[in-house]
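Practice problem: predict the structure.
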Amino acid sequence: MTSKNTIVCDFPRRKMKLKDEDIELIFWDPSGQDRYMPQMMPTYYKRANAAIFLFDITKKSSFDRIEYFYQNVQKNLNVYDIPGQINQILVGNKIDSEDQREVNKIEAEVRKI
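Answer:
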């Protein structure tokens, strides 16, 4: 499998059945490009039911940026009248590149989301 660079935002979709209910997952991938973040990120939170914080285990800088995205989600929950907390999870990708790992497993496991 190959990876591709995201330009501004990508929205892959996946339809599935969960507990006899048809659901559609829409993933908003903002690409991490700082110049677009302040204007674009709040739109991603409208009607959000969950947030997946994805980092590249081979790039420590991507893990370090998780706090920025996490705080931004927390701040915008109230802006869009999202009641309470939404489901949130931290995911490390590129685990097939273990020999290039820059983010320690324990460090990632104890990161509080």
